[in-house]
Amino acid sequence: MKLNVEQRKIVELEPNGHMLIKGVAGSGKTTVAIRRISFLQMHYCMEDDDNILLVTFNKTLLNYIHYQYKKLEDEEKGDIEAWLSGDSDVVIKTIDKLMFSYFMRYLKRHQLKRQIADQQTLYKTIQQAIMQLKEEYADIKILSPKYSSFLLDEIAWIKSCGIPDEVSYQQIDRIGRSTGGRNTPQKLTKNSKTRQAIYQLKERYDELLEAKGLVDFKTMNLLALQQAQEVDQSSYTHIIIDESQDLTKVQLHFLKTIHDEKSYGSITFVADNTQSIYSHSWLGKGRPYTTIGYDMSGKARVLTKNYRTTTEISKAAYGLIEHDEDIMGNVDFVKPSLIDRHGHAPIYRFFLTNNEQIQFFKQEIDQLRQEYRLEDICIVAKEKRLIEDIAMNLENEGIPTEILHQKQPDFGKEAVNLVTMHSIKGLEFKAIFLAHLDDGVLPNMAQVDVEDEETVNTEERKLLYVGMTRANELLYMSSVKKPSKFLKEINPNQLRFKRDASLRPFQKIAISNYQFSEQLLDVNAKEEIIRQWMIYQLIHTYQYPKDVLSIEYGVQQFSKRGYVDIAVMIHVDGEQIPYIFVETKSFGNGVTSATEQLKSYMSTSDHVRYGIATDGLDISIIDRNGEPINDIPKCQPHFLPETKYKSTYTDLRKNKEYDYLQDKDDLQTVEIIDQTTGLAKEMDQPIQVPIIGDVAAGLPMSAIEDYRDTLPVPEDWLIQAQDTFVLQVTGDSMIDDGIEPGDFVLVHRQQTATNGDIVIAVIDGEATIKKYMPMGNTILLVPANTNYEPIQMNADDVFINGKVIGVMHRNHM
Ligand SMILES: Nc1ncnc2c1ncn2[C@@H]1O[C@H](COP(=O)(O)OP(=O)(O)OP(=O)(O)O)[C@@H](O)[C@H]1O
């Protein structure tokens, strides 16, 4: 892969202390980070103790880097293998693993034994601590076991920010903290007894853990930091922090401590705040780098081009975040720019049951298997239990699966990958299925007792954004029972109902916007919702004007009369014939019986070519033989009654051709299309050129006022407006040059001509149209029709009346 200029510049930048690489999803941040290692290793590791650290937040990403770079065929492959095996001056680790090793050294140094407590023990411990302090803080409602998860989270936050004492906690701003909603205990006012109680609870909880020989994760981080500060500082000459938007303040502080600030050393923050999906992250919440001691003015580089996904997927994903003020207002927000890579628009499907969703995955995966390897496909869901459930069901359907979790995911296995939304960050797959985009799952408002609603919305919206931007080529999204509210934020025109069809996902049309309402017996009928959606799609997506649609179209089946829900009636040779039949059923009622009915209706007509049966959830599109097809055709101009006269104009001077379209109702309204570019020609004020008669009459000697009609034309077709006239061609002498009887020619009045001009020449008082060819003292007037002979005349006997500058040939009368 060849880096682009902005990427290469960053890779090869002379290291100069701290710097920030901001970039949109898929802009090559990780790619640049990896290449940068080679560059730094080669040019800026001069002393024996010089070394480089690449730290990632997410373990799956680390394994993925491993996997991706093992696949590389170039010389870098060797380097990266050496780095990953630890057999070089380059260390690539997750922040957790790195800090854990410092923590172990801390324990050893202090001859301590501590283990990391599991989640269940943490819950028990916090509840014990609550019970012990309850009496002392009897008036603090928050001190209750029912707020355990809130309290645990707050304590984790205090530690992840490295807040040293109660006084500091009393004064600190809480970004995104719940301020008193439905399940919210209460507002965490500064300098309050509530904060005092929480801080005391933290102290008690830590004591209880310590007594059990345990620590939680955040304390492990604090002890690792202490180890770095006291003993192991300045260990790395160059540090590159991928996904730095997700790190806590303590983690960032730790990395700062182990950075060796040599004159040629560097610490590089790689970040995309739009992908910050952890509530304890420090920089991702928009806090400035100065809060961790770095001034990034003039030190930031930006990557804006998304190389990963197609324009269609990028646009839909961007549509999701562009209305989120928190995201757009973030100082480090970068607006993505698109590269010219096109593909399918994201597909969205809604299901009533889990099983329907599974059947859909199975069907699509079976299809995709013809083009993709199974390991190029990944199914993503918000929660672990959901992906486990999907994996089990797909296995039952005979599709091998591999759940990618934090341990050692097997990326190369011949199986469909499954991963949670949090863990897919940094990864990419050719085809992505975002499953269970359900109300209650995304966003999960149970979290509102910890974070405030806005914060939860923003964070979960970012999660969906992260998921959407993982797809190289194909993105499927689906929900079960009730869709996530975020799906409504995506412009439906950027989504599709199925892969190879233009049809947009099902949408309810407001009753006030129903079409054909005067013909409806019951506007409230359930099937009507589906029919109106299809009418909307036929008009807006497939561009059939309402005039060609008809509802309750009667067909005769032997002795029975049937009524097709929607018929698209096109115009052929002045006759209106049915072309598409649509059968609709009420929502979720299935399409099997509707398809059978459709087939029988279609068999009654010799004309109808396509059929659609849908219940809004599923769709069947068939041809006239009843065979399934991908899509119906969009409306073509020739399906509609002719409303315009169409002519072709040839500009002989510039040798260009135009379509010249005149409204049948108003001949002065014209539209001119350049045939080469297909673009309409701009024409402010057309010139009205007089149509003065036929060629035989020639041009008048002087200005005339008595003409019946004019031809509106753009000024640049003419040499001079007042000397231009239109004549109608009568004979066929120029037919081989495409000038036919009945055509109109634009003639510029002039007495001279040059070789090859088509002229109106007057001989013996009669005008004729011929090609002009001077030969010595004579002139040849050459017809373009082999049936006629050229006329040779003395120059003095030929009077040139004008030169033909353009020909208007009418295609349809
Ligand atoms: N200059 C380039 N030309 C072609 N492909 C590129 C280029 N730069 C990056 N890519 C490809 O774009 C994809 C995204 O790259 P990478 O994972 O490094 O981006 P990222 O910014 O770290 O993404 P994210 O933050 O979304 O995880 C990869 O498939 C990578 O190979």
TrEMBL record:
Question: What SUPFAM superfamilies does this protein map onto?
Answer: LexA/Signal peptidase, P-loop containing nucleoside triphosphate hydrolases
List the keywords (alphabetical): ATP-binding, Autocatalytic cleavage, Coiled coil, DNA damage, DNA repair, DNA replication, DNA-binding, Helicase, Hydrolase, Isomerase, Nucleotide-binding, Repressor, SOS response, Transcription, Transcription regulation
Q: Which Gene3D superfamilies match?
A: P-loop containing nucleotide triphosphate hydrolases (3.40.50.300), Umud Fragment, subunit A (2.10.109.10)
Gene Ontology biological process terms, A to Z: DNA replication; negative regulation of DNA-templated transcription; recombinational repair; SOS response
Q: Which domain of life is it from?
A: Bacteria
Q: Provide the reaction this enzyme catalyses.
A: Couples ATP hydrolysis with the unwinding of duplex DNA by translocating in the 3'-5' direction; ATP + H2O = ADP + phosphate + H(+)
Q: What molecular function terms (GO) are annotated for this protein? A: 3'-5' DNA helicase activity; ATP binding; DNA binding; serine-type endopeptidase activity
Q: Which residues form the UvrD-like helicase ATP-binding domain?
A: 2-310
Binding of ATP, residues? G23, V24, A25, G26, S27, G28, K29, T30
Coiled-coil regions listed in the entry: 116-143
Q: Which InterPro entries match?
A: DNA_helicase_UvrD-like_C (IPR014017), DNA_helicase_UvrD/REP (IPR000212), HSDR_N (IPR029464), LexA (IPR006200), LexA-like (IPR039418), LexA/Signal_pep-like_sf (IPR036286), P-loop_NTPase (IPR027417), Peptidase_S24_LexA (IPR006197)
Give its E.C. classification number. Answer: 5.6.2.4
Keyword check for Transcription regulation, yes or no.
yes
Q: Indicate whether DNA damage appears among the record's keywords.
A: yes
Which principal EC class is assigned to this enzyme?
A: isomerase
Which family is annotated? Answer: Belongs to the peptidase S24 family.
Supply the name of the protein: DNA 3'-5' helicase
